[in-house]
Amino acid sequence: MLHNARASNPMLRLLFLLACLTLAGCEEELATQHGIRGTTQEGLSVNGTAVLANMFEQAGHEVYTRRALSKTLAARATTIVWFPDTFEPPSEENIEWFNEWLTDHPERTLIFVGRDFDSAPSYWDAIIPGTSAAKAPEYRRRLNDARLDRANNRGKPDDEECEWFNFDYSPANRIVTTLSGPWAAGVNPKKAKIELEGRIDPHPADTTETLLESQGDRLAWRFHPVEEGGRIIVVANGSFLMNYPLVNHEHRKLAAQLVADVDPQGRVVFVESDQGGLPISEDPDYKLPSALAMFTVWPINVLLLHLAALGVVLCVCWWPIFGRPLARPRSEASDFSKHIDALGEMLELTGDHSYATIRVLQYQQSQRGEAVPPSAFRGPTAAPPVGQVTTGQNSGASPDAEGTRSADHAAARRGTPPAREQL
Question: How far apart are CA 112 and CA 235, in angstroms?
Answer without folding.
Answer: 6
